[in-house]
């Protein structure tokens, strides 16, 4: 009896049974390769600032080039092709003098050397215009100036003549590009009649040296954006498929298609979310200073609504004129078999893909929320 009192309690799992299974010992229904592919896709969708560090910098591709001259007979077709396939391209043979761009850069760099109080009081405060700074950033990172085309200031001590001339030259080039792009795609340019106002904004931010782009900048909706390539630098662009790295030619003007242009074209154009950001690695020279000067063609805040624009009337294909009997055969076939395939495709093109929305509400939301990872246009898709 005494010996039985010291008998240990029975083991509920038995003396030879292993401990209860843990998640790590459970059989997996996902193969190792599938899991690796899923993780790889996740990292590819992350912005460069959140992705894992790599030994080599991302490979940069050269943006498609378009000669913006009267001698380029393929201008409209090039604009349509590159804007619908990529959402960005670079202009060569443009009228912007390189010396003017460099003088404007020098004046812009001097703005960032001003004391913080002077930066805050030297420019109009009419949102989104003026000086903006991220209080969480140190050493001036996250600072930016947003100026209208005249680059007006509240101070008489600032000389921005080159920056003002550069901004107006970029505005004129942007309007010419937009007019050609509208004709190429086939939607009505609302600025051609003069009944609508364009709002050009010069967005200036200092490039932060480092191997990764600075993604702290504000996001603002625009039709098209233009950036003059002063030196050889890589840029990171956030397109609908994810982040890509491009390296434009020196003295070219990189053009990005914005979210408003995508809505206007009823989804025919691809877009770049936000502005292109400089990805400054060791090859760019970490000791040198530079700024990004992005001219955004956008809309005034009092714009009532943003929605797809009407398509321009177009002429029938040339082969209908040279071979009328084929057109008659197609018409007879269409009358017997109902709606033709071509008519169905035209109806699909005319069906709106976006519902109308307030530009001011949209601009305020993406400016303050900085919606880069999620497409801010998703909520307006039909």
Automatic annotation (TrEMBL):
Composition bias type Pro residues, residue spans = 7-24
What are the Isopenicillin N synthase-like Fe(2+) 2OG dioxygenase domain coordinates in residue numbering? 235-290
Composition bias, kind Polar residues: at what positions? Answer: 25-34
The alphabetical list of record keywords is: Iron, Metal-binding
Matching Pfam families, A to Z?
2OG-FeII_Oxy (PF03171), DIOX_N (PF14226)
- Which residue ranges have biased composition labelled Basic and acidic residues? 317-329
Enumerate the InterPro entries for this protein. DIOX_N, IPNS-like_FE2OG_OXY, IPNS-like_sf
**Residue ranges annotated for the Non-haem dioxygenase N-terminal domain, each copy included:** 66-122
Highest rank taxon of the organism? Eukaryota
Q: Where is this region: Disordered?
A: 1-38, 308-352
- One function term, GO molecular function aspect: metal ion binding
Designated name of the protein: Gibberellin 2-beta-dioxygenase 1
UniProt source species: Vitis vinifera
């Amino acid at each position: 009896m005494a010996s039985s009192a010291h008998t240990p309690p029975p083991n509920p799992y038995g003396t030879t049974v292993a401990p209860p299974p843990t998640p790590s010992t459970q059989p997996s229904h996902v193969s190792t390769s599938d899991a690796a592919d899923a993780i790889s896709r996740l990292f590819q969708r992350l912005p460069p600032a959140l992705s894992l560090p790599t030994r080599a910098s991302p490979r940069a591709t050269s943006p498609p080039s378009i000669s913006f001259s009267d001698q380029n007979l393929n201008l409209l077709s090039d604009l349509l092709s590159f804007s619908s396939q990529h959402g960005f391209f670079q202009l060569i043979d443009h009228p912007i003098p390189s010396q003017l761009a460099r003088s404007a850069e020098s004046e812009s760099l001097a703005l960032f050397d001003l004391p913080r109080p002077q930066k805050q009081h030297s420019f109009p405060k009419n949102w989104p215009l003026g000086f903006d700074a991220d209080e969480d950033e140190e050493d001036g990172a996250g600072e930016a100036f947003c100026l209208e085309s005249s680059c007006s200031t509240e101070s008489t001590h600032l000389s921005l003549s080159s920056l003002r001339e550069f901004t107006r030259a970029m505005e004129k080039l942007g309007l010419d590009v937009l007019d050609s792009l509208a004709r190429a795609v086939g939607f009505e340019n609302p600025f051609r009649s003069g009944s609508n106002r364009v709002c050009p904004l010069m967005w200036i931010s200092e490039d932060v040296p480092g191997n990764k782009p600075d993604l702290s900048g504000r996001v603002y909706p625009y039709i098209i954006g233009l950036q003059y390539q002063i030196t050889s630098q890589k840029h990171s662009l956030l397109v609908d498929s994810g982040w890509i790295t491009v390296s434009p030619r020196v003295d070219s003007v990189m053009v990005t298609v914005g979210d408003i242009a995508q809505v206007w074209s009823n989804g025919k154009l691809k877009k770049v979310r936000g502005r292109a950001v400089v990805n400054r690695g060791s090859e760019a020279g970490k000791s040198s200073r530079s700024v990004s000067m992005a001219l955004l063609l956008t809309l005034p805040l009092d714009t009532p609504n943003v929605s797809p624009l009407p398509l321009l009337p177009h002429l029938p294909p040339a082969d209908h004129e040279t071979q009328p009997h084929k057109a008659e055969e197609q018409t007879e076939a269409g009358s017997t078999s109902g709606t033709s395939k071509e008519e169905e495709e035209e109806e699909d093109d005319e069906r709106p893909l976006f519902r109308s929305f307030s530009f001011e509400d949209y601009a305020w939301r993406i400016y303050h929320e900085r919606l880069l990872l999620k497409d801010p246009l998703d909520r307006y898709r039909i």
